[in-house]
Amino acid sequence: MLRVLLLGFLYELRIYPLARALRGIYRLFNGVPQIEFYQTFNLIPIIPGVRLVFQKLKETGYKIALISSGIPDFLVKELAAQLDVDYAYGLKLEVINGIITGKISGDVIKENGKALVLEKLLKEEQYSKHNCIAIMDDRNNLPLFRLCEKTIGYNPDTIIAAKCDYALKGEFQDIIPFFDPTVKTLTIPYTRADIFREIIHIGSFLIPILSQFLNINRYTIAIIILITTTLYTISELTRRI
User: Fold this and answer.
1) CB neighbour list of residue 85: distance below 8 Å, 6 or more residues apart
2) Whole-number percent of the chain with pLDDT over 90
3) Which of 32, 38, 76, 188 is most deeply buried (CB count within 10 A of its CB)?
4) Can you tell me where the transmembrane regions are (predicted)?
5) What is the DSSP letter of 48?
6) Is the confidence at residue 207, as pLDDT, over 60?
7) 66 - beta bridge partners?
8) Structural domain spans, the chain
9) Nearest-10 crossing angle of helices 218-239, 2-12
10) Could you tell me the strand order of the sheet in which 133-136 lies?
């Protein structure tokens, strides 16, 4: 668990690229039966309001695509089937005889991977970016901005909140009014929690640099990183509540 948190932390600090962090995480699942992934997936509740939002989009004539950089494609497709979604993309996780090998691949884990997938979809289906809406929560989705006429941040991190057309927290169905083209741009202000998270991000990035100048021993650095990782995890959990 700590290794997974550390890899995610290193990715958030941009020390590790997404693909490297994900490979490190999924390597830990080598030998795990695929059925356990499905069992865990079935325990996770769908966010209230998602079905209503998707229904409204379909009534308006939209096609819906789920694109995930971190979830295996077989689980994204399972979710898509439950929600009557048109397209589903996730990372390719190798499975041999029902057993996970831990090896991953696919466009979504590449640099700007989500944008690569969406761009291919728009081209293949001859859809226009002027009719494309992206709903997102973190900075991994920034490359999608150039491909979408409208961007909506739901429980977004500070970067997405500052850059998207609409940003909101709360009930997922509160997104629905923003599908109306007459609604003006709306962003949410920075909170103390948002500022706290950014301080953690910046401080964590400076840890290895300062340790060189201050001659801090490796055990002290390890403790500082552990504390910072814990604070970061708490801050991310509170963002999603």
Assistant:
1) 54, 64, 65, 66, 79
2) 48
3) 76
4) 219-238
5) T
6) no
7) 88
8) 1-127, 133-189, 193-239
9) 80
10) 133-136, 150-154, 166-168
For 14, phi then psi, to 5°, come to 65, 20
pLDDT digits (tens, 9 = 90+) for 213-241: 556 565 565 665 566 556 555 555 555 55
C-beta of residue 63 within 8 angstroms of C-beta of residue 86: yes
**Under a CB-based contact definition with an 8 Å cutoff, are residues 95 and 8 in contact?**
no
| CB-count burial class (<10 Å; 0-12, 13-18, 19+) for 151 | buried
Q: Residue 208's closest CA among 185, 224, 191?
A: 224
β-pairing verdict for 87-96 and 99-105: antiparallel
Closest CA to 137 of 176, 191, 175, 80: 175
Q: Name the β-bridge partners of 95.
A: 100
Whether the per-residue pLDDT at 202 is higher than 80: the answer is: no
pLDDT(182) > 90: no
Residue 178 near residue 152 (C-beta atoms within 8 A): yes
For the segment 119-142, what is each residue's pLDDT rounded down to a tens digit? 999 999 999 888 899 999 888 899
